[in-house]
Amino acid sequence: MAELTKYDLALIGIKLLAIYLGLEMLGSLPSWVITLSTLYSQGPAAGVTYPFTIKFLAILLPLLTLLIPILLWLLANEFAEIITKRTAKMTSRPDTPLDMLNLQAMVFSAMGILIFIVTAPEFLAWIYAYVRAYIITPRLFQPQFPPFPLLVALVLKLVLSLVLILSSSTLSAALLKLRHRG
């Protein structure tokens, strides 16, 4: 039986992530349809017109969220190469079997990817809620926008995920040095 390499592990994880995201995005389609129907049918019937940017965002965001899992699936090989290149600095070849340092780096990358995958839809949902509050609220009332501190938390989580993904080998080496000191 062939040994599992870092590349294989990264490729499997990315493809599973694409499937998960695709199913999540398909589950959110009914809410997008409701918003679009509100925007295009109830708005003009009530005499309310919305700016082009709001209409554009209301159409663009669902399309972008549907493209994310498709692009992730199609570019899985490239993403796996990027992930394994980050950890290849510590080994002679990127296809070498996993050792403790490489496994730690892969786990940091996987944690970053997981945080990104969980946070990105929440971030898009915040943007959607902001746009939806703008669309649904009549002009005479104050819109109920989503909380701004939530946006700050989501942006910080996205930054943390990117740090974990992009510097996984550095974090793994630093953790190993710290472990050997004590």
Structural class: mainly alpha
Biggest pleated-sheet summary: none
| Terminal CA distance | 38 Å
Instruction: Report the count of strand segments.
Output: 0
Low-confidence stretches: none
Give average pLDDT, whole number: 78
Rough outline:
elongated
What is the beta-strand fraction?
under 5%
User: Which percent range fits the helix content?
Assistant: over 70%
Helix-strand sequence: HHHHHHH
Radius of gyration based on Cα positions:
21 Å
Summed up, the helix count is 7
Tell me briefly what this model is.
80% of the residues lie in helices and 0% in strands. With 182 residues, the protein is an all-alpha fold.
Written overview of the protein:
- The protein is mostly helical and 182 residues long.
- It is built from seven helices and no strands.
- It has helices at 6-27, 29-45, 52-74, 76-88, 100-136, 148-166, 168-181.
- Helix 2 (29-45) runs antiparallel to helix 3.
- The longest helix is centred in the middle third of the chain and has 37 residues, at 100-136.
- It starts with 5 loop residues before the first helix and ends with a helix.
- The mean pLDDT is 78.
